[in-house]
Write a structure and sequence with these properties.
Helix content of chain B: 55-70%
Distance between the termini of chain A: 50 Å
Number of helices of chain B: 10
Strand content of chain A: under 5%
Oligomer: heterodimer
Number of domains of chain B: 1
CATH architecture of chain B: Up-down Bundle
CATH superfamily of chain B: Ferritin, core subunit, four-helix bundle
Distance between the termini of chain B: 36 Å
Shape of chain A: globular
Number of helices of chain A: 13
Order of helices and strands of chain A: HHHHHHHHHHEEHHH
Number of strands of chain A: 2
Strand order of the largest sheet of chain A: 1-2
Largest sheet of chain B: none
Structural class of chain A: mainly alpha
Structural class of chain B: mainly alpha
Shape of chain B: globular
Helix content of chain A: 55-70%
Number of strands of chain B: 0
Order of helices and strands of chain B: HHHHHHHHHH
Largest interface: A-B, 52 and 52 residues
Strand content of chain B: under 5%
Chain lengths: 330, 252
């Protein structure tokens, strides 16, 4: 999932007594697992929260092209280059589905883009970390897509129809990306000493930022209860983080890589791994714009948008001329 | 020049064109003017890299059992056989799409001829690539028309792109000994024989785009025979080949 700290609109969870008749009927549909569709009535806060969440997810797909694009021109084989290109292309496609899903809620892609560019909307903190060696591309697929899938799989059942359908499509491609990422880093872990060093270095840098992708601990999570009642958040942040750690640690062991957490150990009683919390002050710093790459990422998106203005204007102008000529010919 | 030597040169020319252009197009990743263009550019680059694997794969087989990766990542600039057109820097989006169009038009005509090559391997690769390139040409042509016949600014930029790139077009139609050998064997056409069809094709599109074709037929040459590439190729290779060069013998 590429949405973190999505603030749920409204004043928190209402009791049935506090709900209007319309709100009660809406909640009953959600409780009965009936999808909400664009033309159905929905509370304003539900709509606003979904726009924030889907928008943030879409922006993450778009900004997420940058750290991976950073290595496309340096991919070490033609096959790796093709795989990476296909992956980045998929991600841009995910962005497109998600913007379309958001548009069904009454916000245009251009409006959402503008909010990303001027910093009013966020994207996932993970994409503010740099990709410094080739193994990072494997690590991004393995860990970042892996963490994303943890959250997206349950969201296939989310209450909002267009979002749920977008998630179903996206999940298929994401799990493919994760397998490719694991394969790429496995090749490095099994390679020369230098390649092993790259793989370990990538894991060292991406481990904790990946854990941060699930958002802050449940104790600090704002307004989760309402989003959960609306089924636009299915599991708690800590549940998913635990699940991710439990799944990923054996994969790291298989690669012979060391998870950079001295306190990581299997807890027989809980049936889960115990692990260290990420550095939360760092997380909040990144969200505030102080991550290693925030400035570059946003500058790159702004430059692409500004440099592309003449192209968008030109194509629109041509479309208008063509329509006018067609009308005149009729 | 023996038939085998000429055949290898021909394959390198085809594969290096797609390799270098695919690389250039991939530089756009995440920086395109609109999301649909990011997707389309990545898709074009992906197709070109896939075609490279086929052309250079076959070239490597003939060249003493090398792999396509050996050829892509371990040759120096003087051994590259791509036309200069594909190695010039991207410039703005207009120049990138104009370059794509000028190349796609040649590429689609060339592949059409290669589909009837006397060499079944060539015909097979051409048939596969041709489907992709038909789409590339449709898209780059539409974009050239849209931007040429768009706003005053987009028109001016496209005209400037055409004027900058035009001197690199002629190289695609120069015949040499390699071409003569390939034509004699019925493997590939003489490039000069494609020129009329090319001029008709681009003339039609550029007219619709309200763009003016430069009159000069001057052509920069030196890429497809490796005699003199631009200064840009070395920088491109520095980036593309870095990992393979820095960590020789590793598998990725």
């Amino acid at each position: 999932m590429y949405a973190q700290m999505v603030k749920t609109a409204g004043k928190g969870l209402k009791t049935r007594e506090d709900m209007s008749d319309q709100e009660r009927a809406f909640q009953d549909k959600i409780d009965a697992d009936i999808k909400i569709e664009p033309k159905d009535w929905m509370p304003d806060d539900y709509r606003a929260t979904l726009i924030r969440q889907i928008g943030q997810h879409a922006h993450s797909e778009i900004v997420g092209q940058l750290p991976e694009g950073n290595w496309i021109t340096r991919a070490p084989t033609l096959e790796r280059k093709a795989i990476l290109l296909a992956k980045v292309q998929d991600e841009a496609g995910h962005g497109l589905y998600l913007y379309c899903a958001a548009e069904t809620l009454g916000v245009s892609r251009d409006e959402l883009t503008q909010m990303l560019l001027d910093g009013r909307m966020k994207y996932s903190s993970i994409f503010n970390y740099p990709t410094l060696n080739w193994a990072d591309i494997g690590a991004v697929g393995w860990l970042v897509d892996g963490a994303a899938i943890m959250n997206q799989v349950p969201l296939q059942r989310t209450s909002y129809g267009p979002y749920s359908r977008a998630m179903i499509r996206i999940c298929k491609e994401e799990s493919f990306h994760q397998r490719q990422g694991y394969d790429a880093i496995r090749k490095m872990a099994e390679g020369t000493p230098e390649q092993r060093r790259m793989a370990q270095d990538a894991l060292n840098r991406f481990w904790f930022p990946s854990l941060m992708m699930f958002g802050p601990s449940d104790k600090e999570s704002v307004h989760s209860a309402q989003s959960m009642a609306w089924k636009i958040k299915i599991n708690s942040n800590d549940e998913l983080r635990q699940k991710f750690v439990d799944q990923t640690v054996p994969q790291a062991e298989y690669l012979g890589l060391t998870v950079p957490d001295p306190d990581l150990k299997w807890n027989e009683d809980r049936g889960h791994y115990d692990f260290s919390e990420p550095d939360w002050p760092e997380f909040f710093d990144v969200l505030k714009g102080n991550g290693p790459c925030n400035t570059e990422r946003l500058a790159a998106r702004n430059k692409a948008w500004d440099d592309g203005k003449w192209v968008r204007d030109g194509l629109l102008a041509h479309g208008r001329k063509k329509r006018a000529r067609n009308l005149a010919a009729e | 020049m023996t038939r085998d030597e000429a055949f290898l040169q021909f394959l390198l020319r085809m594969g290096d064109n797609t390799l270098i252009l695919g690389h250039r197009v991939s530089e756009w990743c995440g920086h395109a003017p609109v999301l649909e263009e990011d997707i389309a550019l990545a898709n074009t680059a992906l197709d070109l890299i896939g075609q490279t694997q086929m052309w250079l794969g076959l070239a490597g087989e003939i060249d003493g059992g090398k792999s396509a990766d050996d050829l892509a990542f371990l040759r120096d600039a003087w051994d590259f056989r791509n036309v200069l057109l594909v190695e010039v820097p991207n410039g703005d989006f207009g120049r990138t799409l104009m370059r794509q169009f000028l190349f796609d038009a040649w590429h689609s005509i060339m592949l059409g001829r290669l589909m009837t090559s006397s060499d079944a391997r060539i015909a097979g690769i051409a048939a596969k690539a041709s489907k992709e390139v038909t789409y590339h040409l449709e898209r780059s042509g539409d974009t050239v028309v849209g931007l040429g016949d768009g706003t005053e600014e987009s028109h001016a930029r496209m005209q400037a792109a055409l004027e900058y790139l035009w001197p690199y077009v002629g190289e695609m139609f120069v015949n040499d000994d390699v071409d003569a050998e390939m034509a004699k064997a019925g493997i590939a056409p003489n490039p000069a024989d494609l020129r009329d069809e090319y001029d008709a094709l681009i003339g039609h599109v550029l007219a619709e785009a309200t763009l003016t074709l430069p009159e000069s037929r001057f052509a920069h040459k030196g890429g497809r025979d490796g005699r003199m590439h631009t200064e840009h190729l070395g920088h491109l290779l520095t980036q593309m080949q870095w990992l393979q060069r820095a960590y020789p013998g590793a598998t990725w």
